Amino acid sequence: MIELTINNKQHKLDLPDDMPLLWALRDIVKLTGSKYGCGKGLCGACTVHMDGIAVRSCVMPISAVKGKSITTIEGLSENIDHPVQKAWLEINVPQCGYCQSGQIMSAASLLASNDSPSDDDIDQAMSGNLCRCGTYPRIRSAIHLAAKLAKEVK
Ligand code: FES
Ligand code: FES
Questions:
Q1: Using a 6 Å cutoff on CB, does residue 99 contact ligand 2?
Q2: Is 75 in the pocket of ligand 2 (CB under 6 A)?
């Protein structure tokens, strides 16, 4: 039995130790906002936060998240009012949308550790999140806007 917190809710799950966290989130807990892209840690579609840090849930065995606090896109804010979500909406970042929950989770993790990221900081932090639709310029603009919005609410 594995105990973990997902979006501030306690869960006790009877799962094999080697099950990837993404499988547990999507198939067992039914949180389907985190997406399956490559399954190899290469695309970022499955990005969630583990104790506030962005991780690739497709390559994170459930045994490695015991006792940790996991946040998925569904738990990032209560009313879609995280500065990153607000900026994403204002700039209308998504195209097909498939990669976007992972992009948002990586962006939120970046801003938690760097409240004024440069273009280089953004490119480096977001380099593992691929977007087949090429929304990169809007993602970068939205992260700058989110940094500004986050400072306004402080
Ligand atoms: S699905 Fe996890 S990194 Fe691609
Ligand atoms: S918006 Fe389509 S893959 Fe990124």
A1: yes
A2: no
**Kindly report the CA angle at 33 between 41 and 119, in degrees rounded to 5?**
60
Could you give the percent of the chain with pLDDT greater than 90? 97
Which of 75, 96, 115 represents a domain boundary (last residue)?
Answer: 75
CA distances, 66 to each of 5, 76, 92 (Å): 9, 20, 36
Task: Please work out whether the CB of residue 37 comes within 6 Å of at least one atom of ligand 2.
Answer: no
Residue 12's nearest CA partner among 27, 1, 23 is: 1
Q: Same domain for 64 and 120?
A: no
Alpha-carbon span 53 to 49, nearest angstrom:
5
**pLDDT value, residue 60:** 98
Q: Which domain holds residue 42?
A: 2-75
Dump pLDDT digits (tens) for 3-57. 999 999 999 999 999 999 999 999 999 999 999 999 999 999 999 999 999 999 9
Which ligand is the nearest neighbour of the Cα of 98? 2
Q: Indicate if 94 and 70 belong to the same structural domain.
A: no
Helix, strand, or coil here: 79?
Answer: coil
43 CA closest ligand 1 atom index: 4
